[in-house]
UniProtKB/TrEMBL annotation, chain A:
UniProt GO molecular function: metal ion binding
PANTHER family: METALLOPROTEASE, MITOCHONDRIAL-PROCESSING PEPTIDASE SUBUNIT ALPHA
Pfam families per the UniProt record, alphabetical: Peptidase_M16 (PF00675), Peptidase_M16_C (PF05193)
Protein name: Peptidase M16 domain protein
TrEMBL record, chain B:
Originating species: Vulcanisaeta moutnovskia (strain 768-28)
An example molecular function term from Gene Ontology annotations: metal ion binding
Domain of life assignment: Archaea
Pfam families recorded: Peptidase_M16_C
InterPro entries: Metalloenz_LuxS/M16 (IPR011249), Peptidase_M16_C (IPR007863)
Domain Peptidase M16 C-terminal: 189-305
The name this protein goes by in its record: Peptidase M16 domain protein
Length: 414, 369
């Protein structure tokens, strides 16, 4: 059973005990691309990199401490949040608390290390740019928003990453990395009392302060339908990206409808990929999107979608597209089609199965609880929204997708 | 019970995970690339659609030694799922062969756009010469045009299950298809040398340095190289390649190594992604790092603890358990394979790992981008 408590300095602590030899310790900070501004686009991600460098008061580096006991560690920067992860054999779980408490306050941002990390983040940017799908989605973002911070995605702007100073990002770190802006999630083989005791031991003495990363949801940019054409590099597979703006998690009812629409349109590929499992799933053949391949309009189709706090893009990519005009029209027809009871039943089955599969390990549960707490102020709410998606009916679906189709981006890459 | 089946009881009540390995890896294909075409032919069937309808998640992964079907189902529907899987395997939609070939070709061309995948494919071509391992399962430049309906029928007739691993609350799952043991294909000679493939417009190039190594049935050898790889580049941020290439010099976002102990051989691969202007510097740093044979006690102990702890952490989910244990029935490894692994590596000395580094032969080096 999941429990929630709050330390006197404002740190939210979520604990779920499971009878397993592993403990997943996740710390979510409410800071990400959404908090960036001109001059530091991509900075949240660079800060995350710096938090794997020198941290005062730790007995060793994060990697040595965690890898040395066979644990797994990671960090992810997202549109809305940044999360740090340790998955440890349960007997070493205390190590995760120690690392994360020090990370919250004691990162050094050594200037020479900062310059090295800047180069590494730029190299990551290069790696992303090597991928034509990334280039298309990134371009779509720039069309989807004018000045909204989602415009440059999480990767940011190369020019900002080249110029941003160590001091500016250190201030950014001090502003947002504080207990009141963080959620500690502990799932696995640690008892609830023990987890709360360790949270108090390591985080309890941290002074409150800094700022909250919460922002009021807003949107701008895309009105109507936009179509652009880009030249593909020689040897690359031609493709067509079609993207729609879908509601963010701030709009719980919109999220519920998006989930149902995703399971009808893409089977579950996009939702699953973006939520927890990062499984290399293909679009199911019984999904609507796959009909594009069945009808010879393309040779493969994928979709991408990630649950974010504010409205974001739901992207569909068709590879080796034969007749782009026809493909765009057909995608819109497929999305707008009234679902049969049979089709709704299929979507409901898969939603419930996905929910079971997304909650069967400490790591997956920690991710869901943390997201749910940040977006909805309740660790269990996201699970109930997913369950509620099965209760939507045909007319709700039709109203929802008709609205989506009014704002779209098509990018032909050939 | 057949020797190729392994059941592991799972504490997760509602979920069953199956790992089904078929004799359609790069090694066993009578017609190279036929597994890549069979995958869409299977997925087109009504049996596959019915699997999707009942909420079963499944994905195919073609490897060197097997084609794996990974299945995740609610336990209440797992027997129905297995029946559908059997029917799917035996009834590919052969009439749509040309569509399947088109899909397979597109999938390969997308994979080959990825410079890191492509660089591994190019290095393996050099390292394994004319052995089937020279054909990267999902990024080799297969010629699909000659595949006929008869080839597909023959592949289905010859279909065998190499192993079935079941992670579930109860042992009530089996598959009604013929089983076969894994058969090695010996390697006559390994190749070495350099290959450089330039792809227009890529901002970054990938480097792959590949060395021959022990296969999985050489338990002690593969255990030693597993620890060596952990120190070299398989332990995240503290491994040597990561430190030398990324942390100290900031040359690359990724720099790591992998060890694949396969059934007929093994391969150790070191990788990094960099801009063209620093390729030479990076390769020199990588080769220098791999060539450093001095192993400290502290480094070794950390690697050993890492490997032991990682087994526990990998097993946090049912699919992690299946991934970990499926090698046992596939290659006929001892049931206490991981106990043996832990016991053996716990007794390793620095010189045991140094010797493995010293014995590395001349590599195949591929640069793509």
């Amino acid at each position: 059973m999941v429990s929630l408590s709050r330390l006197s300095n404002g740190l939210t602590v979520i604990v779920h005990h499971m009878p397993i030899d592993v403990a997943a310790i996740y710390v979510f900070y409410n800071v990400g691309a959404k908090n960036e501004y001109p001059g530091i686009f991509g900075g949240s991600h660079l800060v995350e990199h710096m938090l794997f460098r020198k941290i005062e008061g730790l007995r060793g580096s994060v990697d040595e401490l965690v890898e040395g006991v066979g644990g797994y560690f990671n960090g992810f920067t997202n549109y809305d949040y940044t999360v740090y992860v340790e998955v440890l054999p349960a007997e070493y779980a205390e190590l995760g608390f120690e690392i994360e408490s020090k990370r919250m306050t004691n990162a050094v941002f050594d200037p020479s290390e900062f310059e090295l990390e800047r180069k590494i983040v730029l190299s990551e940017f290069d790696m992303n740019e090597n991928d034509p799908d990334f280039r298309l989605v990134y371009r779509a973002s720039m069309i989807a928003w004018d000045v909204h911070p989602y415009r440059y995605a999480v990767a940011g702007l190369r020019s900002d990453l080249n110029r941003v100073s160590r001091d500016e990002l250190f201030r950014y770190y001090r502003r947002y990395y504080n207990p009141g802006n963080a959620v500690l999630v502990v799932v696995g083989g640690l008892g609830e009392d023990k987890a709360v005791e360790l949270a108090n031991k390591y985080f309890g003495s941290i002074e409150p302060g800094g700022e909250s990363g919460v922002i009021k949801p807003w949107d701008d940019g895309l009105q109507g339908r936009v179509r652009v054409e880009l030249k593909a590099l020689s040897g690359e597979t031609p493709r067509l990206l079609i993207a729609f703006k879908v509601p963010g998690a701030h709009d719980i009812d919109g999220l519920r409808k998006t989930i149902l629409a995703d399971f009808i349109i893409s089977g579950d590929r996009a939702f699953t990929y973006g939520l927890t499992s990062r499984e290399p799933m293909v679009v199911p053949r019984s999904s609507r999107l796959y009909r594009l391949v069945e009808e010879g309009l393309g040779d493969a189709v994928y979709s991408y979608y990630e649950v974010t706090y504010m409205n974001n893009l739901y992207s569909i990519i068709i590879y080796n597209v034969k007749d782009p005009d026809r493909a765009i029209m057909r995608v819109e027809e497929l999305i707008a089609e009234r679902p049969s009871e049979d089709e709704l039943g299929f979507a409901r089955e898969r939603i419930m199965a996905r929910l079971v599969f997304s909650t069967d390990s400490p790591s997956k549960l920690a991710q869901i609880y943390g997201l749910s707490q940040l977006f909805m102020g309740d660790p269990g709410r996201l699970i109930s929204v997913i369950e509620d998606a099965t209760k939507s009916d045909t007319s709700e679906y039709i109203d929802f997708v008709n609205n989506l189709l009014n704002r779209s981006i098509s990018i032909l890459y050939r | 019970m057949v020797a190729n089946k392994l059941f592991i009881r799972s504490p997760v009540k509602d979920v069953a995970v199956l790992d089904i390995k078929l004799n359609l890896g790069s090694l066993q294909e009578a017609y190279p690339g036929i597994a890549n075409v069979l995958i869409p032919l299977w997925r087109m069937s009504n049996y596959a659609r019915e699997l999707e309808r009942i909420g079963v998640s499944f994905s195919f992964e073609k490897g060197f030694d097997a084609l794996t079907l990974r299945v995740k189902a609610r336990f209440s529907v797992v027997n129905k799922a297995v029946k559908l899987i059997e029917d799917m395997f035996l009834n590919p939609v052969i009439d749509r062969l040309s569509d399947a070939i088109r899909e397979a070709r597109t999938s390969i061309s997308i994979n080959r756009e990825d410079t890191s995948v492509r660089s591994v494919a190019e290095a393996l071509k050099v390292l394994f010469n004319d052995h089937p391992y020279s054909r990267h399962p999902i990024a080799y430049d297969y010629s699909f045009d000659g595949i006929t309906k008869d080839d597909i029928k023959r592949a289905v007739d010859a279909l065998k299950v190499l192993s079935l691993t079941v992670v579930a609350p109860e042992d009530m799952v089996d598959i009604n298809l013929p089983y076969a043991g894994y058969a090695k294909v010996p390697i006559s000679r390994f190749g070495s040398g350099n290959v450089d493939v330039r792809l227009e417009g890529k901002v970054q190039a990938s480097i792959t340095i590949a060395y021959p190594s022990y296969g999985i049935s050489n338990l002690e050898g593969s255990f030693r190289v597993t620890v060596m790889n952990t120190i070299l580049g398989g332990m995240g941020l503290i491994s040597r390649l990561y430190r030398e290439v990324r942390v100290k010099r900031g040359l690359a976002y990724y720099a790591y190594s992998m060890y694949w102990p396969l059934g007929s051989s093994g391969v150790l691969i070191a990788m990094a992604g960099v801009r063209r202007e620093v390729i030479k510097e990076t390769i020199d740093v990588m080769l220098g790092t791999i060539g450093n044979q001095v192993i400290s006690e502290e480094e070794l102990n950390m690697a050993i603890k890492n490997r032991i702890g990682r087994i526990k952490v990998t097993a946090e989910s049912p699919e992690g358990v299946a991934m970990l244990y499926s090698v046992i029935p596939t290659y006929g490894l001892p049931a206490d394979y991981y106990e043996k692994f832990i016991s053996y590596i716990s007794g390793l000395r620095p010189e045991d790992v140094s010797r493995e580094l010293r014995n590395l032969s001349k590599p195949a080096i591929a640069v793509v981008g």
